[in-house]
Structure formats: structure tokens, C-alpha cells
Specification:
The structure is a homodimer of 343-residue chains.
Chain A lengths: L14 H8 L3 H8 L7 H14 L5 H8 L5 E5 L4 H5 L1 H15 L5 E5 L3 H15 L3 E4 L6 H8 L4 E4 L10 E5 L1 H14 L5 E5 L5 H16 L9 E3 L4 H14 L5 E4 L2 H13 L9 E3 L6 H4 L6 E3 L2 H16 L6 E4 L2 E3 L5
Parallel strand pairs in A: 1-2, 1-3, 3-4, 4-5, 5-11, 6-7, 6-8, 8-9
Antiparallel strand pairs in A: 10-12
Helix pairs in contact in A: 1-2, 1-3, 6-14, 9-10, 11-12
The structure holds a DNA duplex (30 and 30 nucleotides).
Chain lengths: 343, 343
DNA sequence: TTCTCTACTGTGAACGCTCACATACGCAGG
DNA sequence: CCTGCGTATGTGAGCGTTCACAGTAGAGAA
């Protein structure tokens, strides 16, 4: 990393310049910059005018050097990174977090830890205090990064419920179980009784919880659980198609499928079409996520909307609170059933 | 932005600690950290051992304060941000840039400038010198951000050829025109003669260039340009469907379509299906991008692959070179025709 | 020897900011 | 009158680096 100084950019004004122009001291300028307590209205105004006039922008490095915080936070993805391309939710989340942080004037550092090497590098970077906190996307269980960061005392908020022991780590998640309940209840209300399910990976809380909601509602509704109607996918489109094929093979009388993600549901739709089943006439299909893909499929997917915009803003809120000294917190947000054509 | 210091994180070791442990001075440690010139092998080794022992990580803020560079770069998206969700290429690009930078130990700051407010805030942030350079994604013409940053002397690399006057701004782009040529040549080789085109927005270089390639090959091949076979889309799936409908209406004898993006091509495929045309029997369809969507559609899309991984790494290379003092550079990378089922 | 040159090492200053402290100015109460 | 207190302001120190400069030591040349 060798970068020489760039020619043609002139030195930006410092707090000193502002103080001189405003006719006050550095201290007063600094106080105005940091909330304006103990500053007379006259000085306040003079400083603000001087800031406008000089075009002053605070030098965050100098500030960080003394405050010990970086005023920046990391967005860390430890999933294998193909997920980045397959899952549209990731985009919504990343955008939401970036904007929520921007509102606090905090830059977001994007960190991708696909390989072991990257993981080590990033862990060092974070624990060295170069970010004040971390927004973590990592649904798989046993992720050592989360544990390592937690032990190092780095403020941390996970997206989605962590699997491990209820270790004291903050997280924000949609109510997976309740969303699944809503969908399966909806399928029941349509008169369906042979309801299949394509779950997510069962080492992810989303996979487990959505399956649990499915079983709960069926049991409560007096429908017996048939394990032939339960298959596991990995949230990919292909695994959805494969899952549907397996379901049709094991339970040809299936009249509905609850699919734990929209992407998988797209695969399910293709497989059903190939098998000659009409959706929703022969088989109702319910997805999960309300991703953009949901409206693009034919027929449009009935699905469970996860409130991604709220998830991202809550993640940021919880993280900043934790950085401010609050205890870790768990936030679970309600989902919404979105009725379209597939069920 | 108020963040109190977090409890429970202890002070990281400084260059002083390393020097003490290694039995040398700060200066020597600093020299080892910055390339190790004029350091004896013995001192070198002692310092490295001390670094390992103490777990020292350089404090980038202190370094930046004196060097005047931030050793971080910004990834700036000025497109309306729905593009972020619709366009899978964006993901590939973002990931590629992050990783290419990671190899240089440079963090990437994600900046989204959707609104006017955000634009101003981000421009201030950048011109204040808080990043050493900017990777810019902004295909629309007349983007004032690019101009503003250029005037401020901020090293800048655009993704895609900028529209404006050949102003001296670096960019990295795929060879749009040549890619279009390849595809249309391919369609001609299949015996198609009534070849329609759904272009991108004509205020983007991609839109213009791909259309130019299309016209070039037809003219060279002795096929007369029929303006009824030319419609303009906006890279969205919906605009592809609408475009195909308009084409069919104006030229029912169309036997092929070159679509300027895979996403639009998906819309075209749906529209053709709805109109009862078989692909590729009745109408051949050629896309552009080779996005993940290309293999997911039915039939799988014949398309032009843009070398996104190389685009991102070249963007980073060019930007770092420019930060190092090099002149702005333009890089144009070759595309590849990927034959699948749709043509 | 003495002088120069090269390779290496240590030291003080400075980067731009915040924080703790000192100070100054009313204005109340004793 | 002095004391005390709350508000408002200025000042010095120091955050952890790098950089320029001043050395030091040893080798080779005069």
C-alpha cells in the first residue's frame, strides 16, 4: 500500500482557520462542532458562518486519533459470497444499512470474508479498533467470526437469529416462525390439506423456525405431519426445483407447497410446470421473503414479506445504542402475508 | 453522532510498545512497517517478532493524520438505487472491487447518492479528502458528481465509458460495440434477417454503443436498417417485455431480437411466450451481460459476457495508479459470446 | 591517521483535533 | 465585602504515527 500524495489538491482548512475567521479559539469551534453546549449564541453564529465561508470539514482522522473511536462501522459478510449474487435481500439490507448510517454521518465499510485468509485479516482489522462496531450477516451456525468479535468486546449486531447458545449477542430478525404460521394458515384456509414444505438449511435459524411454524399450524389444525412432505433446500433456485421434484415423487397427491424462500419458490414453480401441475389450480405455492423475484415469476408469488427496510434501520439503531454503552438487545419484527396469484 | 467509548476493550499496543519490546526506536519500527528500507536484517527480525508478540496493528488514523492520505477508497453509486436491486452486475462489480482493494489492504467505503442531499453530503465528504479516490458507477450522462469530483482533483475511475466530452476522466468498460457486433453476427449466421433490437437508454454509452454495433453489422451484412425494428428500453425487465410487444406490433415478421441486457431479455422472453412465439424456433433472442439470470431463464439465454471480474480489478488498478500520480487512463476489455439455447 | 561515504538508528517535531484545566465574567447569597 | 456558582472562553497537552534531520559506526580511500 504505497500512495504518494496527489498533486493538485490543496490543503483543506483546519479548525484553526475557522477559529481565526470567526475570531474565537479552537476550543469554541470544537464545542460548536460537538453539539454546541456552553457556547454563546453569538459565538455559535460566528463559528457557523466561518465554517460556511471556509468550507471547513472536520478531519475525522485527527478526531479519531484522540477520541479513540473511528466513527465508522463495518458491514461484514461471512457467508460464501455467491449468496451475495443469489439473494436480493442482501442488497436491500446493504442499502438500508448504508442509508441508516448515512443519516448519522457514519460511513460504512464493506467487508467480505469469504476465505480463511480474508477472515483473519478482517478480524485483525476490526479488533484493532478501526471500526466502532459491526453489522454481521452470517446465518450459518458456528461462525467463529461472531464469537471472536464478541470475545474481543466489539459491538456487534447480527442479521437474523444466531444459532448458538443464547450467547449475549444482539440481533435483529423477522419473526420467521410467525411468518411461516401465517402462510400455512393461509394455505389451510384455501382448503389445502396435503401441504409440502421446502425448508432452508436446518443449521440456520430461518430454516428451523420456518419449519417449526409449518408444523405448529398443521398440528394445531388437526393435520398430521407427513415427513414425506418435508424436504430441505439451501435457498438456491436449483434446490427449490430439486425439492419440488422429490416432493412430487414421494407425495404425488400434494396440493400445496410452502417454500422457505422466494428464490427456491421460483425453482418449485418451474419444476411444477415441468411436471404438468398448474399453479395455483392444482398446487398452491407460498414463498418467503417478498423479494423482487416474487412479482416477476409466473404466476406472481404469494409470499411472506420480511421488513428488510426496518431490519436494517433497527440493526443500525441497536448497534449505535450498544456502542453508546447499552446492553445487547434482540429485536424481532413482524412479517406480512402478501397475497398474489400463486396461492 | 455521539458515541461514548466502549467499555471492555482495552487499549491496543502502539508503535512505542513494539519498539520497546524489540529494543529499537519508533523510527526503526516505522521503517519496517513501510517497506523495510535502511533496516538491518537483525532489527527487521526483532521488530517483526515484537509485532507478532504484541499483536500490534497500525493505527491508520494516526498514520493518515500525518501522511494526508486516508488509505481508503470510496465506491460511489449515483444511479437511482433501484438499479442496485435489479442489476446483478452491480453485485459482481462491488464484490470484485472490494476484493481487489482488500488485496492492497485498502478498505472500501460504500456511498449511495440517490437523493440530492446525499449527493451534497458525499461530495463534501470526498472532497474533504476522507478517501484517496473514488470508484464511480454512474452510466447516465451529465452526472454532475463526476464533474465536481474531477474539478476538485479527486482521483476517479468510472465504470463504463462516460458520455460527456472526452473529458480526461479514467474509465474501464467492456467493448460494448464489439460485443453487439458479435451477437448480431451470430444471429445473422443463424439465417435471421429480420432482427429487432431493444436498446438501453440512449443517454448511456452502453445504449448507444450496442445499438451502433447492431447497425454496423447489419449494414455490413447488406441488411437494411428498419427503424420499426428498433426500440429503446431502460434495462429493466418490464421495459424488455414492453419493448418486445412493441416490436411484434410494428414488425410481426421479426425472427430475432438482440436485447441490450439479460434482464430486459427476460422480459422479452415472457412477452414472446405470451404472444405465442417459440424461442428459439420462431424467434432467436440474444442478451447482453451474462448475468446469473441468463442461465435461469427458459430457455437459457445466449448472451454476451462482460468480464466483470476483470472490470473491477482494472478499475482498482487504474485508480491506484492514478492516486500514485499516473495520468487518467481508459481501459476497454473484450467481451465473449456465450452460446446457450435462446439463439 | 583522517576524511568521506554508506548503511543504519534515534529523536524532535508536526499532523488536526479533543479534552481537561485554568480563567474570566457576571450575579446570587451570606 | 467576599464567596460561590453557572456560563462562557482560551490554552496546553497529547492521541500514534511519519518525516526530516542528526547522529553513529564501520569500511575504504587519501
Amino acid at each position: 500500500m504505497t500512495m504518494s500524495n496527489t498533486a493538485g489538491r490543496r490543503k483543506p482548512p483546519t479548525i484553526h482557520d475557522v477559529a481565526r475567521v470567526a475570531g474565537v479559539s479552537r476550543g469554541t469551534v470544537s464545542r460548536v462542532l460537538n453539539g454546541g453546549h456552553y457556547v454563546s449564541p453569538a459565538a455559535q453564529e460566528a463559528v457557523n458562518a466561518a465554517i460556511r465561508k471556509t468550507g471547513y470539514v472536520v478531519n475525522r482522522h485527527a478526531r479519531s486519533l484522540i477520541t479513540g473511536r473511528s466513527d465508522s462501522i463495518g458491514f461484514l459478510l461471512t457467508e460464501p459470497q455467491e449468496k451475495l449474487f443469489e439473494d436480493p435481500n442482501f442488497n436491500v439490507l446493504l442499502r438500508g444499512c448504508t442509508q441508516a448510517l448515512a443519516a448519522h454521518d457514519i460511513p460504512l465499510l464493506l467487508m467480505l470474508a469469504g476465505t480463511e485468509d480474508e477472515r483473519r485479516r478482517i478480524t485483525r482489522y476490526i479488533t484493532a479498533g478501526h471500526v466502532d462496531g459491526v453489522l454481521l450477516v452470517s446465518s450459518h451456525s458456528g461462525d467463529p467470526v461472531a464469537e471472536e468479535l464478541r470475545e474481543a468486546g466489539v459491538p456487534l449486531v447480527q442479521c437474523g437469529k444466531p444459532m448458538g447458545l443464547g450467547s449475549k449477542v444482539s440481533y435483529v430478525a423477522a419473526d420467521d416462525r410467525d411468518g411461516a404460521r401465517d402462510m400455512v394458515r393461509h394455505l389451510l384456509s384455501l382448503g389445502r390439506r396435503r401441504i409440502g414444505v421446502v425448508t432452508g438449511p436446518l443449521d440456520t435459524p430461518g430454516g428451523v423456525e420456518r419449519l417449526a411454524g409449518y408444523k405448529e399450524v398443521l398440528t394445531d389444525g388437526g393435520v398430521e405431519i407427513d415427513e414425506r412432505l418435508v424436504v430441505t433446500g439451501d435457498y438456491s433456485r436449483a434446490s427449490g426445483a430439486a425439492g419440488a421434484e422429490r416432493l412430487l415423487e414421494r407425495a404425488p397427491d400434494m396440493d400445496a407447497v410452502f417454500v422457505a424462500s422466494d428464490l427456491m419458490a421460483q425453482g418449485v414453480l418451474s419444476a411444477l410446470r415441468r411436471a404438468g401441475r398448474r399453479v395455483p389450480e392444482d398446487v398452491s405455492v407460498g414463498g418467503f421473503d417478498d423479494s423482487p423475484a416474487a412479482t416477476e415469476s409466473a404466476p406472481a408469488l404469494t409470499t411472506i414479506r420480511q421488513p428488510w427496510d426496518r431490519i436494517s434501520s433497527e440493526m443500525v439503531r441497536v448497534l449505535l445504542a450498544q456502542i453508546g454503552g447499552d446492553d445487547p438487545a434482540a429485536v424481532i419484527l413482524p412479517t406480512v402475508l402478501v397475497r398474489r396469484d400463486s396461492a
